[in-house]
């Protein structure tokens, strides 16, 4: 398929170089193309990444294709051209055939303990089924599996681990044998030793992390996706949990120290990526807000951008720079986002697979 060549001029990040790029058949070239249409001039970033979102679900469970499409378009229009889907109970494979919708790296469906997660979301199983269920989801996903590591234990009235440590270790080993990375939902402290000992590849939220665990993550290269704009809703969750006062207080305490946890992780060298957790209660299209929250927590503006663009793309196995031959997935901003991160919230142009889509 051929399409009219496009031309973009600007400061290209992360190299910070003034460049002219031409786009032919969905790919970048630095060879000038005559009669190419100039579509933008500004700051050019590799397509944004939402490293934790859910396309295909709303607060009540799975959604139909029309809603899935709307969610995907909302992410795209915010500049998100690559999403790591952290678990959905619906089949969104059809999106892969749509050139106008973002690329998705899927983690299958959440693997959760029976009655210990949001209703209608997960495959809910008991520990003896965990290894086989993780293997099933590894085959369904795009190289990732999502395990719910802790959730409220209503008998305890507080957050508690969902799995025995040995079962968790066996499940993570099985996923790795099948070539899948494992990420885990974890809010509290108690589940963390088992998750880290099992060798998970990424923690979602990670609000309960202690300094020594952060140091161990930096050492092993275990990633952290703090989902700060989701953690900002913890006071609301606590306010609705009056039947479980210990849990409510715990959620407030985790909320209060999350920025410090992120700053400590950043200083220690833990790989941090930007994820919004859109899809359940949060709206799609908020990646710029998450980047700003990461910056407020202590990441430099450039590292906060990297967490939602080039560095996250590399982590997910996609090209991180707009070099000769790279896929033409990028956003163009009218101001330097390193000087003002709010510029990220309103991309002047979004180009996906070489076509202007927004
Ligand atoms: Zn999530």
Helix- and strand-based class?
A: alpha/beta
Total strands? 20
Mean pLDDT: 96
Bound molecules: zinc ion
Assess the beta-strand content as a share of residues. Answer: 25-35%
Any idea what the shape is?
A: globular
Low-confidence stretches: none
Strand order of the largest sheet: 3-2-1-4-18-19-20
Please tell me how large the radius of gyration is. 20 Å
User: Major beta sheet, specifics?
Assistant: 7 strands, mixed
**Distance linking N and C termini:** 21 Å
Helical content class: 25-40%
Count the DSSP helices: 12
Structure in a nutshell:
The chain has 12 helices and 20 strands.
Q: Care to describe what's here?
A:
With 358 residues, the protein is an alpha/beta fold. Helices cover 31% and strands 25% of the residues. It contains twelve helices and 20 strands. The chain has a seven-stranded mixed β-sheet with strand order 3-2-1-4-18-19-20, with no helix packed on it. A hairpin with a 2-residue loop joins β2 and β3. The radius of gyration is 20 Å and the shape is globular. The chain binds zinc ion (ZN). Zinc ion is lined by residues 52, 54, 86, 277.
Helices and strands, with pairings:
Layout: E1 6-12, E2 17-24, E3 27-29, E4 37-46, E5 48-53, E6 57-58, E7 61-62, H1 65-77, E8 80-85, E9 103-106, E10 111-113, E11 123-125, H2 130-140, E12 144-148, E13 150-153, E14 158-161, H3 165-177, E15 181-186, H4 192-198, E16 202-205, H5 211-220, E17 223-225, H6 228-231, H7 234-239, H8 245-256, H9 258-268, H10 287-297, H11 301-306, H12 310-315, E18 330-333, E19 349-352, E20 355-356
Parallel strand pairs: 1-4, 5-8, 8-9, 10-11, 12-15, 15-16, 16-17
Antiparallel strand pairs: 1-2, 2-3, 4-18, 6-7, 13-14, 18-19, 19-20
The chain binds zinc ion.
Residues 52, 54, 86, 277 line the site of zinc ion.
């Amino acid at each position: 398929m051929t399409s009219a060549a496009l031309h973009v001029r600007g400061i290209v990040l992360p190299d910070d170089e003034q460049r002219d790029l031409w786009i032919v058949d969905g790919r970048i070239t630095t060879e000038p193309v005559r009669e190419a249409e100039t579509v933008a001039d500004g700051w050019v970033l590799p397509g944004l990444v939402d490293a934790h979102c859910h396309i295909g679900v709303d607060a009540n469970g799975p959604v139909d294709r029309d809603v899935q499409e709307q969610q995907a378009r909302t992410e795209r229009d915010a500049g998100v051209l690559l999403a790591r889907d952290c678990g959905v109970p619906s089949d969104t494979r059809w999106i892969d055939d749509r050139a106008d919708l973002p690329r998705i790296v899927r983690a299958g469906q959440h693997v959760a303990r029976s009655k210990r997660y949001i209703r209608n979301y997960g495959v809910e199983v008991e520990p003896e089924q965990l290894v086989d269920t993780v293997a099933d989801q590894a085959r369904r996903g795009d190289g990732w599996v999502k395990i719910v590591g802790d959730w409220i234990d209503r008998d305890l009235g507080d957050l508690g681990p969902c799995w025995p440590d040995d079962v968790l270790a066996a499940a993570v080993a099985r996923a790795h044998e099948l070539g899948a990375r494992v990420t885990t939902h974890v809010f509290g402290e108690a589940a963390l030793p088992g998750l880290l000992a099992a060798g998970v590849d990424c923690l979602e939220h990670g609000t309960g992390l202690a300094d020594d665990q952060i140091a161990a993550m930096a050492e092993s290269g275990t990633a952290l996706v703090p989902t700060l704009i989701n953690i900002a809703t913890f006071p609301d969750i606590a306010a609705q949990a009056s039947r479980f006062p210990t849990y409510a207080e715990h959620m407030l305490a985790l909320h209060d120290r999350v920025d410090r946890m992120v700053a400590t992780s950043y200083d220690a060298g833990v790989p941090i990526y930007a994820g919004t957790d859109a899809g359940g209660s949060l709206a799609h299209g908020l990646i710029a807000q998450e980047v700003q929250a990461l910056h407020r927590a202590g990441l430099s503006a450039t590292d906060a951008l990297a967490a939602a663009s080039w560095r996250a793309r590399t982590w997910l196995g996609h090209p991180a720079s707009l070099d000769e031959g790279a896929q033409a997935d990028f956003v163009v901003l009218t101001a330097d986002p390193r000087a003002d991160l709010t510029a990220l919230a309103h991309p002047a142009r979004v180009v996906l697979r070489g076509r202007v889509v927004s």
